[in-house]
Each structure stands twice: as C-alpha cells, then as structure tokens.
Design goal:
Layout: H1 2-9, H2 11-38, H3 40-44, H4 48-57, H5 70-89, H6 91-101, H7 110-133, H8 135-140, H9 143-162, H10 172-189, H11 197-205, H12 207-210, H13 217-226
Length: 230
C-alpha cells in the first residue's frame, strides 16, 4: 500500500496534473484564436468595459440571483468557493504546489479547511437534491451533471475522513489512496467536461462578441430549427 501511495503522490500526480494544465491551456488557446482571428472585426467595437464589469459581477453573482432559486443559487456559490479554496490553499496541498511550482504560496488553517470542506459536501448534496427533486431542473440535467457532483464529492469526503482518524471507518492508507486517486481522476476529466469552465468562465461571459449574428443569420437559424415556413 505504501508503494501505491508513493506512486499516486509522485509520478501519477505529475502526469494527471500536466494533462489538466495542458488540456486547459489548449482550450484557452482555442478560445483566444476564435476571438482574435475568427472574430477579429467584431471585437474592435465590442463594449469591453461593460463585458468586464459583467464578468466580474458573476464572480460573486449575488445580483444575478433569480427569485425562487435563491437558496440553491447560494448553495452553488458556496460550493464553488469551497471547491476552489480548499484544493488550492489547504496547507497539506500547498506543500505539493510549492514543490512543483517552486514558489511560496499562502495557505489556510485546518479549522478553516474543515469548515469549507463540510460546507462543500453539504452543498453538493443540496445541488444533487435540487437536480433530482425539482422538475424543471431535472429536465435540464443530464447524467454527467450527477456524475461530476459525485466525482467532486469523493475527494472532499475522503480527504476529510483521512485527516480525522476518529471518524475514518477504514485504514488511513486506504482512505488517503482513495483521496489521491479520485482527485487525480478529476485532473484528467476537467479539460474534457463542464468543469473546464474554471478557465472558460470569462469567455462564456462575453456574449456581446460570441452572439453577434451576421445579417440574415436569424432567418437561417429559424429555418434550420423550424423549416422554411418557420
């Protein structure tokens, strides 16, 4: 088991982390190419200040909350906070980041990390319930939406149990290996799933550029969707 742990912490971590970084970098390059090269004329007169303000407003999207979904929208916001802060700034993780990046990084204490981890786990279950029991949300959800939430749940739950031996029902080595492998599975999945919005977030918000239709495009879209009569 010790050899498996060393393999997961060393070579496997390096390979999966590089897959994630290179995969996300590829997506950024493609999006930048589409903006600068394919839509170069459109971006010259684009309202960049307005789009930047709109993008930053979605970082903490309180003013975008929709009546009737406030509770679950807040759960989504808190879920994103925990899902970003804990992996990046937990002291135990910082040791690895510093080893690979060679720079000193800030970290959060164990108490804060525990609180954020439990908050994230609770939010995951709330979001799963939202997608399962609310009809209009269930209709828009696909199987991958549920799978991704479970895949994010596993490293958070296993990491919490590994760091709290009194609550851990299995040997520490087993739980830590589960934590490492589940996190590394996410590394591989991120660039090829909806989780890629971790870097595509800003590109998604600049709809003033992406959704500029050429003259006559609306008629062609309507014909494609509803036929010539439409």
């Amino acid at each position: 088991m010790e050899q498996w742990l060393e393999f997961a912490k060393g070579p496997l971590f390096t390979v999966t982390f590089l897959i994630m970084i290179l995969g996300l970098g590829r997506l950024v390059i493609i999006q930048t190419y589409l903006l600068v090269i394919r839509k170069g004329r459109r971006i010259r007169n684009a309202p960049w200040k307005k789009m930047a303000s709109e993008t930053f407003s979605w970082v903490v999207p309180v003013r975008h909350l929709i009546r009737g979904t406030v509770f679950f929208s807040l759960a989504s916001i808190l879920f994103h906070v925990g899902a970003i802060v804990v992996p990046l700034f937990l002291a135990d993780h910082i040791v690895m980041w510093e080893a690979y990046l060679g720079v000193d990084l800030p970290s959060i204490g164990r108490g804060v990390a525990d609180f954020l981890t439990l908050m994230t786990i609770v939010c995951i279950f709330l979001l799963l319930g939202w997608r399962t029991f609310i009809g209009r949300v269930r209709a828009m959800s696909s199987a991958i939406d549920y799978v991704l939430l479970f895949l994010i749940l596993i490293p958070f739950a296993s990491g919490y149990l590994a760091s709290h031996p009194a609550l851990n029902p299995v040997p520490w080595e087993v739980m830590m290996l589960t934590h490492l492998l589940s996190a590394e599975l996410l590394f591989v999945i991120v660039p090829f799933s909806k989780l890629a919005h971790v870097v595509l977030f800003a590109f998604d918000r600049i709809s003033a550029v992406h959704w500029q239709l050429r003259p006559g495009a609306g008629d062609r879209v309507a014909e494609a969707l509803f036929g010539r009569e439409g």
